[in-house]
Amino acid sequence: MKVKSLVVAGLMSALFVTGATAAELKVGYVNTQRIFRDAPAAQKAAKKLESEFSKRDQDLQRMAKQLQGLQENLEKNSVTMAEGDRRAKEKEFGELSREFQRRQREFREDLNLRQNEENAAVIEKANRAIKQIAEADKFDLILQDVVWVSPRLDITDRVIKALAEGK
Q1: Mean local confidence (pLDDT), 26-30
Q2: Which domain CATH number covers 98?
Q3: What own/partner pairs with CB < 8 Å and gap ≥ 24 does 2-8 have?
Q4: Average pLDDT, the chain
Q5: 29: which strand partners?
Q6: Cα–Cα dist 117/121, whole Å
Q7: Model pTM?
Q8: pLDDT by residue (tens digit) across 82-97?
Q9: d(CA 135, CA 14)
Q10: Within 13 Å, how many C-alpha atoms sit on residue 25's CB side?
Q11: Are 81 and 92 in contact (CB under 8 A)?
Q12: Which site from 16, 30, 35, 46 is most exposed, i.e. has the minimal number of CB atoms within 10 Å?
């Protein structure tokens, strides 16, 4: 975070040192989180991921309920069960628990990978839109992910609109 601040401060200093005054410097800001939340491309990507992973998620939920049922059955009936039956149920529970954890881990890894892929595509489109806006309106600097910015510098709505129009 400090490095980003230093880089921005350096860029701002360089612009001022090269003769640009504050009145000539045109700065804009884009809220990346709003892009991911509000842009049609981001919403489409989220729906795509949801449909792609919904079956696996439902399978994991069913498996979790099955595990819960086995655990409750063991807790309730382990005292009255025969030793062999209890051991068999405990073994079944252990195996199912390990399988559930393995599938859950794979699910998270696959989902994270796909989310990163989809986010990268959205960012690529957003960056193209930002560049077009910057060139068309002759911005000197467009910032992302800052601690605070004046609302008058925020061009996020324009970027979202450009993404909706497919630019």
Answers
A1: 95
A2: 3.30.910.20
A3: 4/145, 8/143, 8/146
A4: 88
A5: 143, 154
A6: 6
A7: 0.71
A8: 899 889 989 999 999 9
A9: 20
A10: 16
A11: no
A12: 16
Q: How many CB atoms lie within 10 A of CB 139?
A: 17
The residue type found at 145 is: D
Rounded to whole angstroms, the Cα distance separating 140 from 119 reads: 26
Q: Which two three-digit tokens encode residue 25?
A: 């410097």
Residue 145 sits in which domain range?
A: 2-164
Q: What residue type is 166 in one-letter code?
A: G
Given CA atoms 19, 25, 31, 35 in this order, what sign does their dihedral have?
A: negative
Q: Express each pLDDT in 36-61 by its tens digit.
A: 999 999 999 999 999 999 999 999 99
Residue 92 one-letter amino acid: E
End-to-end alpha carbon distance in the chain? 31
The one-letter amino acid at 24 = E
* Domains in the chain, number: 1
